Amino acid sequence: MVSRFSGAFIRAVLVVLVVVTPSVLLPGVSVDARQMAALVALFAGLLTFVEYNTEAPSLIEFRDAPPFNRVRLAMLFATVFCLSIMESGRTEPTSLTELVQAIGHLVGRSMDFPYSPVRLAKLMLAETATPEQVMAVRDAAGIAYLTSLISLAVFVLLLKSGAWPLRDRVFNVWVNLPTFDPTAGDLVDRLERDGRINIALGFLLPFIIPFIVSLSSSGVNPDSMTASQTLIWTMTAWAFLPASLFMRGIALGRIAEMIRDIRRARVRADSSAVSRASRVF
Q1: Between 20 and 30 A from 81 (CA), which of 52, 183, 257, 270?
Q2: How many CB atoms lie within 10 A of CB 241?
Q3: CA 244 – CA 75 distance, rounded (Å)
Q4: What are phi and psi of 125, to 5 degrees?
Q5: Which residues are within 8 A (CB) of 169 and not within 5 positions of it... i.e. 6 or more apart?
Q6: DSSP 220
Q7: Which has more pLDDT, 206 or 3?
Q8: pLDDT tens for residues 156-197?
Q9: What's 186's DSSP letter?
């Protein structure tokens, strides 16, 4: 009980830190913006604490299957932190901000080719956007996308090395997938189907979102889009959600593979038992 409470509290604090990072690092943030960020952070922290402190979760998946959520939280924090450093350097440059801005500029330029996610992110801006505003969106999109790709690669390496799910823990489908109904149809087939759907959505979302925005209107107002907090959270969501869906799809496929292996082992064990019994009689 104490271990669960302390773990839930630490996770809640980490979530709060992620949410308030832009307000802490960005200069000139208004009092109202800080209060709003604090309110959102408290809500997110409370939700995380309740989910991890109860025996039966209701929303958060893979609660007892580390380090899945830890990788996602690290990806979210790294994206928000890097983008906050980039934006703070526009008014108060330091060696760190110049380094991050240089990396973002390099990655943004290298990923800015026809039909790439970064190029489509630029197209969300209205035609009245200045070259500086377009470059700000491109650099932010580049570094956010790079962070998501690195985090996805880390998770795949953990998966291939056997570090997920941990072999010393029993994987409970009900606890780790609270929104998944294991009784509706064959479990393995549904897991594989949902995994493929998540992977497809994760791959397509960075392309679909800018395309829909550009079709539904004449473009986003560049002044509001390039505002520091708006740019940080927009680019974070644009990169984090597809990567998170991609990771979820890979994880569901891995779980389906584990269940299939367990079923095969049970079938072999039953066949061996029947064979031994037939020899006895």
Answers
A1: 52
A2: 16
A3: 9
A4: -75, 150
A5: 64, 65
A6: B
A7: 206
A8: 998 888 778 876 677 787 788 888 776 667 888 889 999 999
A9: -
CA geometry: angle 138, 144, 146, nearest 5 deg: 100
DSSP 212-260: HHHHHSS-B-HHHHTSHHHHHHHHHHHHHHHHHHHHHHHHHHHHHHHHH
Q: Is 126 helix (H, G, I), strand (E, B) or coil?
A: coil
Confidence class for position 275, pLDDT limits 50, 70, 90: low
Compute the CA torsion angle 83, 87, 88, 93 (nearest 10 deg).
Answer: 110
* Spatial CA neighbour of 247 closest among 67, 107, 116: 67
CB 53 within 8 A of CB 8: yes
> Average pLDDT, stretch 245-261?
90
For the segment 23-39, what is each residue's pLDDT rounded down to a tens digit? 999 988 888 889 999 99
The phi and psi torsions of 65 (rounded to 5 degrees) equal -135, 65
Instruction: Indicate the residue type of 75.
Output: M
Report which residue type is found at 141.
A
First to last CA, the chain: 52
For the record, the structure tokens of 135 come out as 């470059």
Query: According to the per-residue pLDDT averaged within each range, which of 12-26, 88-102, 258-272 is highest?
Result: 12-26
Distance CA 101, CA 85 (A): 8
Tokens of 261: 């292996």
Collapsing DSSP to helix, strand or coil, 125 comes out as strand
Q: Where are the domains of the chain?
A: 1-55, 65-280
DSSP sequence for 148-181: HHHHHHHHHHHHHTT-SS-TTS---HHHH-TT--
